[in-house]
């Protein structure tokens, strides 16, 4: 393998990570307010999936969805502005970090209700049968959401009606603050797919190449009328559940293992094996940080959202 694709993947991983690290700085400085949940370390899943999302598809993320918005093509300055409560935000400063949405970019947003995107994705897939598109609905959720009743109902409904839904579980092993293997009898969550009559598998979510390949099969099945698939992408969250989380629940040796397997480390090894010079690898991080510094500066200079507009768009 040459280094062109891994280098492109690393560039995207760094763009997402630099964005979120800058968001953390803004939150700690008081420029952003409210609860913010970061997906630092989980970027490989969104990077691998980004090229699979077609122009008529629909993506539904969790409240840890900044990287998914970037994967769908939303400009970082609009995302920064939204999180900062600026009028130039993608939702005019109304949504903030956990509720931003960008349907014009195929990103139908985040949701603070755990697992709530799954039944909404079923609605989007069902609508695709009536609007002339070959829409695939991608719903992304965490391992903890697999125990939510709404996710069970969505999977059952999608399977019963053979809907083009891809259920993507980003399993970072921590359901907020509790290890998933302490909450379920079978920690290999993908095996639940058989009970719904759909295919399922577990993949390495840190490897964009594997995500692209295996998730691509699920998209193809959905688009050809084969119904839903459950994909469990194993990854890790390198930060706390939210900004301010003391993160003291980690198990011995976990941080060290995570540091070896996360997307930047994995792709860096792959690029070095392909003979890509270290300065070119380092340049991906430098360029991403420069881009996000500039984008956040534009957002900070924008006017705050006008509270008088808070009730706009609430009623038809």
UniProtKB/TrEMBL annotation:
Residues 294-303 have a biased composition (Low complexity). The keyword Oxidoreductase applies. Signal peptide: none annotated. Residues 275-316 are annotated as: Disordered. It comes from Pseudonocardia sulfidoxydans NBRC 16205. Keywords: Oxidoreductase, Pyruvate, Thiamine pyrophosphate. Residues 15-305 form the Dehydrogenase E1 component domain. GO terms for molecular function: magnesium ion binding; pyruvate dehydrogenase (acetyl-transferring) activity. Its cofactor is thiamine diphosphate. Pfam families: E1_dh (PF00676). GO terms for biological process: pyruvate decarboxylation to acetyl-CoA. This is Pyruvate dehydrogenase E1 component subunit alpha. InterPro entries: DH_E1 (IPR001017), PDH_E1_Alpha_Subunit (IPR050642), THDP-binding (IPR029061). Gene3D superfamilies: 3.40.50.970.
């Amino acid at each position: 393998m040459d280094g062109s694709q891994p280098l492109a993947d690393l560039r995207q991983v760094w763009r997402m990570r630099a964005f979120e690290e800058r968001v953390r700085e803004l939150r700690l400085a008081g420029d952003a307010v409210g609860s913010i949940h970061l997906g630092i370390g989980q970027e490989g899943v969104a990077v691998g999936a980004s090229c699979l999302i077609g122009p008529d598809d629909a993506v539904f993320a969790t409240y840890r969805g900044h990287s998914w918005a970037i994967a769908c093509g939303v400009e970082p300055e609009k995302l920064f502005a939204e999180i900062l409560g600026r009028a130039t935000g993608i939702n005019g400063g109304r949504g903030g970090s956990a509720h931003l949405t960008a349907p014009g970019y195929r990103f139908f947003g985040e949701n603070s209700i755990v697992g709530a995107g799954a039944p909404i994705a079923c609605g989007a897939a069902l609508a695709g049968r009536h609007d002339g598109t070959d829409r695939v609905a991608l719903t992304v959720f965490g391992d903890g959401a697999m125990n939510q009743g709404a996710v069970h109902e969505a999977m059952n409904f999608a399977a019963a009606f053979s809907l083009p839904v891809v259920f993507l579980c980003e399993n970072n092993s921590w359901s907020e603050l509790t290890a998933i293997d302490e909450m379920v009898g079978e920690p290999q969550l993908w095996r639940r797919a058989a009970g719904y009559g759909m295919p399922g598998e577990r993949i390495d979510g840190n490897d964009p190449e594997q995500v692209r390949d295996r998730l691509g099969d699920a998209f193809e099945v959905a688009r050809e009328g084969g119904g839903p698939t459950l994909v469990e992408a194993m990854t890790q969250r390198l930060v706390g559940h939210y900004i301010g989380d003391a993160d003291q629940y980690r198990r011995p040796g976990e941080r060290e293992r995570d540091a070896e397997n996360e997307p930047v480390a994995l792709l860096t090894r792959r690029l070095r094996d392909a003979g890509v010079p270290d300065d070119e690898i380092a340049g991906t991080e430098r360029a991403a940080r420069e881009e996000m510094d500039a984008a956040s500066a534009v957002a900070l200079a924008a006017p705050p959202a006008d509270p008088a507009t808070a009730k706009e768009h609430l009623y038809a």
